[in-house]
Amino acid sequence: MKLVLLPAAGSQVYGRVRAKQHQSAIRLWIPDYFDAHSNASTFAYNDGKSSTVAGLNGWVIPELNKQTLAAVAEADPEKRTQLYTQLQQELQQNSPYIFIDQAKAQVVLRDNVKGYQQGLNADMVYYDRVSK
C-alpha cells in the first residue's frame, strides 16, 4: 500500500470530508456528551441523509443502523450498556475507522488556584468556582 499524506488546514480537511472528496482523513474526535448514543449515532449510523461520520465516509451499514436505534431505545441500563459494547466491538473490528488518538486537555495550575475543573470542551469551564 502506498500512502500519500497531504497536509492541510483543518478547514480544508473538513471541507473535503463534508463534500465527500476524500479517500481518507486524519481527524480529531472529542466526545462531547456523556451518553453512549452520542458516539454510536456518529460512527455507527448512516441513514443517507445526515452528516454522521459514517455517512460522510460513505459507509452503508443497515444492520448497524438497526442496532444503534435499538440501543438508544433500550430502557434497561444493563442491556443498553451491553448493546453499546457490542456496537463498539463491531466498530473496532469491521469499520473503516482507525482510532489512534484520544484528545485530553492538559491544564497546569499554580498551587494557589482552587476550584478549576476542565470539562470536555474548552467552553465547559465555570470560572465562578475558581479562586486564588
Automatic annotation (TrEMBL):
It comes from Yersinia pestis. This is Oligo-dipeptide/nickel ABC transporter substrate-binding protein.
